[in-house]
Model the fold of this input.
Amino acid sequence: MQSPYKIALVGNPNSGKSSLFNSLTGLNQKVGNFPGVTVDKKTGLSKISETLSAHIIDLPGTYSLYPKSADERVTYDVLLNARSKDRPDMIVVIADASNLRRNLLFCTQIMDLEIPVVIALTMMDIARQKGMTIDTDGLQRMMGVPVVPINPRKNKGIAQLKKTIADAKQNTSPAPGNFIDTIALAGDWLEEVKTICGLESGYSAMHVACNYAELTWLNAAQRIRIAALLDEVKFHKSKVQAEEIMQRYQRIGTIMQQCVAEASPMKRMVVSDRIDKVLLHPVWGNVVLLVVLFFLFQSIFWLAAYPMSWVEHGFSAVGGWLGNILPDGFVKDLLINGLLAGVSGVAIFIPQIMILFGFITILEDSGYMARISFLTDRLMRSVGLNGRSVMPLISGMACAVPAIMAARTIQNSKERLITIMVTPLMSCSARLPVYTILIGLVIPERYYLGFISLQGMVFMGLYLLGFFMALLVSWVMNFIVKVKERTFFLMELPVYRAPRWKNAGITMIEKAKIFVRDAGKIIIIISLLLWALATFGPAKQMHAVSDKYTKLEQQYPEQKEELERKRATEKLEHSFAGIMGHAIEPAIRPLGFDWKIGIALITSFAAREVFVGTMATLYSVGDQGASTTTLRDKMREARRPDGSIVYTLATGLALLIFYVFAMQCMSTLAIVKRETRSWKYPVIQFFYMGGIAYLSALLVYQLFK
Done:
């Protein structure tokens, strides 16, 4: 059976590669892992022409063929290993026209691998803003490969690119090669390396000579023969690599002179450069960053307040309606106090989840997220982290799982480990429902200057608290792990662009679906399980409670309603859930937590957002179903056995602080184990974060009680 035609997309980071992949494949995509590594592998099917369908492989972005991270090494291995199952039949190199000189370096390296190549020029509009005029026909003639201008964001040039790919496949002429004469550069002995490894080009052979000890697809015999040959010819890796780069830039300089007309250096700066004068300023840049974060967290409360209120009252009304029409019994109790309570715990926070991810998408799409990395780079280095640690930490505001996976781009293994260990301290979206319900309980709805919300300020403070604790723990771990090697943080700053509002809207909807599908399933399942644990208990104890209140109702019929409420409370305490909560209550009582909060701490280990579903179930068990009281009102009215309020300011703040620091997420522990390939680090992570959470909550409770 003939193997499918494979096309690899390669290019520098921020060159438009992912946008082109989406344009070519549409919804025909899937994500997996490259063999033997945990680096994401995005593939998709694209109909290139009537007679050609191709598998598109989106390889990780890289600046050159000399890898410096796990992601870049994947691209390197796929392109050099002739026996790789992902080895492409054609390569589409995405080149940023506004930074053409640097991008052509990578293009020429790819060409010398002697695999058919098509160059897709992106960012042509930005190049024009910079005063650059590119002769694409001349560039194609001098490079010796097809060159197609495209704009994947607006779906322009995609049809021409597909036609060029189809034509290139039909072309029987040899693949491009010899942009520089590799044999003349290094020596005739490269032919022997080609023979030993079964390679197609002298340039591939030179790369094997430079990195043979690290290439996993070479066997021991091949390594021994190559090592002996290199010793014989006295190969100097650094000298050959430096000479290669110089020769490439000499030819690229000639191409640029003949094919690119650039404006005078005195031409006024493009808009992005002028904006960066302010947004990257060491003082004003940080002020703007704080304002952006302030607006983000204020809006989560301000914009989401109305839809959350509608959802909350809607579920209360549905619960009251069902309570009135359904007959009393097991099914009614299960539907209202189990299923409906669990669903409401999911649905009420969908508006906030959507707003948070919408803003993050806009920041990324506009190019500002990369500036945040630049601004915080110096701060990262002061605590022993690499500048590349910024992006995982920022991503941790959405979810720790992909954020930890994003740490693969960090070259230094020890710096990568520290980043993985502290990323869960960043407040993720799973904490958002917990923050919201508790802030609404204990922080008054007060505004300053008419628009600054006190609740929004506290919300922002919790996110900043997690961030600064991550920096503190990094500083401590820097002494423990003893990072000696330092790496450099290099990142292309994308130009500012108007956000794609459609893209932001799609992301908001998709993230809401993911929250409902993934977190929702867990919350509902645990809510139903918890309803069962809170409804049933040891038969002897439950019968004793029932008999006690049956006799009391006969003696005091006028107090039937009050006695029913006390019966429900006492049954809950003697249920299986109540027994679990009372078992851990002595350990959490110093924090101001009662046994119901203890149950929520246990169940929310599966996922932090389960806390709200647990509270919804616990405070619903025993209701007769006709109540339209919201969860927040029920928690506000909760009392201890001595009649004191449960959720005081001290208890609420202690619980908030606990959830800022505690490792309450099985998925995060699992991904840490997978990324570090050891259970040692997730265990350490669980206990150090739990210890910080407990001690911090204890301190806060003692200060405010």
